[in-house]
Amino acid sequence: MTELRKLTPHSAIPAEQARRDSRQRHLLRTFLPEMIRLERVLAEAPEQVAVKTLSRVALKDIDLPIYRVDLGSEAPDAPVVMLVGGVHGLERIGSEVVMAWLRNLLARISWDGHLQALLKKVRVTLLPILNPGGMYLNQRSNPNGVDLMRNAPITAQDRSAFLLGGQRFSPRLPWFIGDPEQGMEAENQALESVISELLPGRPFSVALDCHSGFGWQDQIWFPYAYRRRPMRRIESVMALKLIWEQAWPEHNYRFEPQSRHYLTHGDLWDYFYKKINRSGEGAFIPLTLELGSWRWIKKRPRQLLRLDGFFNPLVPHRHRRVLRSHLTFIDFLVSAAAHHENWLPQADEASMLREAAIAHWYRDHH
Ligand SMILES: [Zn+2]
């Protein structure tokens, strides 16, 4: 594959670290320690891990890289697992979940023969900090004030949630969709370039975009956000949910279409889902992990006094528990993608699962 040759070897990372002057390193340590941790993990990564700087986000004092990390099979028809974190700058824990999984993988890769065999069958691509400018500034939106999750060229079909569903009044208010005439923001264009190059022609691909927000429980959301009707490949989501819950019944994710919560304009994953699945070949399932942050707040209401306390577990033991509790699900996604032919429903089974999905998620509602 030509693309892989374009990837910078990971030795570029120490150069990046050395390039920054001490003032910038100080700023980074203070405002974006996640970037330092990521660069440290990548600098020590084995050779088969490719790292590329997709884009840079320039702020007044510093400019920040958006990294793409690739490993596993280079075959153009290998299934893909994509992990994305840090779309919303306040939801730092999402980036940390992606990085915790990457750290675990890289620590095992030299000795774990099962893992090595698995990676021969599947391609894994990570964008651990998609919105480094927003995370540096400790705000949900990117530095232009645009909510990246409301910025794709797709409009809600029904009445969207007021403001929350995406607004075009002001970048000073949350959920600003930006200027659709100008195209998507640079961060989203970086993500789109990866998706357009990576996903077409694959028999199966799945993305997990890690967020944290409101809710008592960890939720897995899937499209659509722009309409209430089910997506075309709803049977594959139902099949994935079933094999997960059969094997790990004690895990407690709530799988739901985002439209059950609220409709939004400009949802990135609606847009990519439609774009990639348009061809009709293969299946692409974009999932969003919404870590239920209300539990952390209930156990420690003091968290509400800090802006980041809305979205992140601030107590160390709870933070560690969050990081370890999602490794299993991501490992599961990698295995499920690698062996998709063993569970992805065909023909009769597909129509039965589609019926089940509609009864489960769409019939009793509104
Ligand atoms: Zn979010």
Describe the overall structure.
This protein has helices at residues 2-6, 12-19, 22-31, 33-43, 92-108, 113-119, 132-136, 186-198, 234-247, 268-277, 294-299, 316-325, 327-338, 347-361; strands spanning 50-58, 63-72, 80-85, 123-127, 204-213, 219-222, 254-257, 283-292. Helix 2 (12-19) runs antiparallel to helix 4 (33-43), helix 3 packs across helix 4 (33-43) and helix 5 (92-108) crosses helix 12 (316-325). It has an eight-stranded mixed β-sheet, sandwiched between helices. The protein is globular, with a radius of gyration of 20 Å. It has one domain: Aminopeptidase, CATH 3.40.630.10. With 366 residues, the protein is an alpha/beta fold. The protein starts with a helix and ends in a 5-residue tail after the last helix. The longest helix has 17 residues, at 92-108. The protein has 14 helices and eight strands. Bound molecules: zinc ion. Zinc ion (ZN) binds at residues 87-88, 91, 211, 213.
